[in-house]
Specification:
The protein is an alpha/beta fold. Helix content is 26%, strand content 23%. The strands form two sheets. A six-stranded mixed sheet has the order 4-3-2-1-10-11. Strands 5-6-7-9-8 form a five-stranded mixed sheet, with helices on one face. Helix 3 packs across helix 5. The termini are far apart.
């Protein structure tokens, strides 16, 4: 097949690849943990950590996206609610260095970040700011907008959680409506894609010209807080986009599922 006469126009059709991920909770015994960061602390969670890492490295490793949006809670913090009993690493800098190793496996050309939850990422010091500096990230903020070939992505970590399955899209559609109202006032850009995190489940909704979604997490099932207090499903994974032009993109969700939980026999 002969090459197009205008090779520049042909090459311009190559999509811009973007990976959106969040909630690795590095430092927690169910956070995303590279093998080099495994330690000798006894833990029944080691098998899940190893399985998650194997899937993540195979799926996301060396993707070399043009852009990564890391949408908060890269690290887990001190684990005060459980007295630190679930932490593989307690030191902030260790957790930051582990998160840096995780992101470098994906090898993005440019990184944009948002701040996660202060409980996990630091109240006196924003340790995700330290991570952003180590990664030479383009930016980190509370809520930001990124124009990728004419499609505006609004991204922010925090979102309200629903306790019922049919309510899970309500919060992101609420944020989409607020975005529309702000845009109507002429103060903020109208988003074509809304990204939220924090809730550890992946749902999406929209209409022509709008996609609103929550990102899956990259922390495993069975934390003390989640296992004892929460109900509902958890999704583990990340989202991949290919952008071609204004509101012209493809997207794929990569999801990891844990093996079936064994049943105790009487």
């Amino acid at each position: 097949m002969p090459l197009p006469t205008n090779l520049g126009d042909f090459m311009a059709k190559k999509p811009i690849k973007l990976i959106a991920m969040s909630d690795t909770h590095c430092g927690h015994e169910l956070g995303l943990t590279p093998p080099a960061w495994e330690n000798n602390k006894p833990s029944a969670k080691k098998q899940m950590r190893a399985a998650m890492w194997k899937w993540f490295k195979k799926t996301a490793g060396g993707m070399n996206p043009d852009i990564m949006i890391f949408n908060g809670d890269a690290i887990d913090g001190k684990g005060q609610a459980s007295g630190g009993s679930e932490q593989l690493y307690m030191e902030w800098q260790d957790q930051v260095d582990m998160a840096e190793d995780v992101i470098k496996v994906v090898n993005p050309a440019a990184i944009y970040m948002s701040y996660g939850t202060a409980y996990h990422t630091g109240k006196d010091t924003d340790w995700e700011r330290v991570l952003a500096d180590q990664l030479s990230a383009k930016s980190i903020g509370g809520e930001d907008d990124l124009d990728v070939r004419g499609t505006v992505i609004n991204y922010k970590h925090h979102l309200g959680r629903s306790g019922v399955p049919h309510g899970r899209t309500a919060a992101i559609l609420r944020d989409a409506l607020w975005n529309e109202i702000w845009a109507g006032r002429g103060e903020y850009p109208r988003a074509g894609i809304l990204l939220r995190s924090h809730v550890h489940y992946h749902v999406f909704a929209g209409q022509p010209g709008l996609l609103a979604l929550t990102l899956p997490s990259l922390q495993g099932y069975g934390t003390k807080y989640g296992g004892r207090r929460m109900t509902g499903t958890v999704d583990i994974g990340f989202v991949e986009f290919d952008f071609y032009g204004p509101n012209d993109y493809n997207w794929t969700t990569h999801i990891w599922r844990a093996p079936m939980k064994p049943v105790t026999k009487a």
